[in-house]
Amino acid sequence: MKGKRLLLTVFCMLAVMLLTSCWNSRELNEMAIVTGMGIDKAPDKDEYRVTFQIVNPSSTATSMGASTGQPTITVYSATDRTLFGALRKTSKKAARQLFFAHTQLVVIGEDMARSGIDDIFDVFERSHELRLNATVLVSRGDDANSIMKILLPIESLPAMGLVKKVRNTAAIWGENRDITIFELINGITGEGEVVISGIRVIGDKEEGKKKANLEQTEVKAIPAISGLGVFKKGKLVTWLEGSEAKGVLWVQNKIDQTTVNIDTEGSEASVAVDINYSKTAINVELREGVPVFHVHIQEEGKISETRGFMDLSNGDEIAKLEEQLAKQTKEAAIRSIQAAQRLESDIFDFGNELKRLRPKEWEAVKEDWSSLFAQGKLDVRVEAHIRGTGMRLKPYLQNKDESN
Amino acid sequence: MPGNQDPLLSAKLADNLQEIRDRLGNSPDLIIRKFELVTSLIEVAAIYINGLNDKDIVDEFITHIMAFDTLGGDGPQLNSVNGIYQFMKGKALSTGEEKVIRDWKELFAALLSGNTIVLVDGLAEAIGGNTSGGEVRAVTEASTQVAIRGSKESFTESIGTNLSLVRRRIKNANLWIETMKIGVVTQTDVAIMYMNGIAKESVIQKLKQKLQGIHIDAILESGYIEQLIEENKYSPFPTLYNTERPDSVAGNLMEGRIAIFVDGTPFVLIAPTTFFMFFHAVEDYYQRYDISTLIRLLRFMCLIISLFGPGLFVAALNFHQEMIPTPLLINLASQREGVPFPTFIEALLLEVTFEIIREAGIRMPSPIGQTVSIIGGLVLGQAAVQAGIVSPAMVIVVSLTGISSFATPAFNMALSVRILRFIIMFIAAFMGLYGMCVFSFILIAHLCSLSSLGIPYMSPMGPFIPQNQQDAVFRLPFQFMKNRPRLISQKKHNKRIR
Question: What's the pTM?
Answer without folding.
Answer: 0.84
